[in-house]
């Protein structure tokens, strides 16, 4: 029985690692209310977790628009929404698509 539980644990870890944002936490700054749901869905689909700006944990990444936005808290990395996609394709948060 212990061996079966160990196998399931390994499978769970492997699945989490298959996703691009697995185990990473994010906070969003400077986006319109219309763009936040699309960005949040993209991050969650990639295995990431979006924190509220009021959350006390230190996020791995703060995501800001291309033209920047002040980040008023401690974060490990500040990146733009362009960084989020392979190949540097721009994510359009208003339409939930790549432009």
Automatic annotation (TrEMBL):
Q: Which domain of life is it from?
A: Eukaryota
What is the protein name given in its UniProt record?
Uncharacterized protein
Which species does the entry assign this protein to?
A: Dreissena polymorpha
């Amino acid at each position: 029985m212990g061996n079966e539980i160990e196998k399931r644990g390994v499978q769970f870890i492997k699945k989490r690692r298959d996703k691009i944002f697995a185990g990473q936490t994010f906070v969003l700054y400077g986006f319109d209310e219309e763009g936040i749901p699309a960005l949040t869905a993209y991050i969650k689909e990639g295995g990431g977790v979006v924190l509220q700006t009021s959350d006390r944990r230190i996020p791995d990444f703060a995501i800001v628009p291309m033209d920047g936005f002040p980040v008023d808290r401690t974060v490990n990395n500040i990146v733009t929404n362009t960084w989020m996609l392979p190949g540097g394709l721009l994510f359009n948060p208003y339409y939930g698509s790549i432009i």
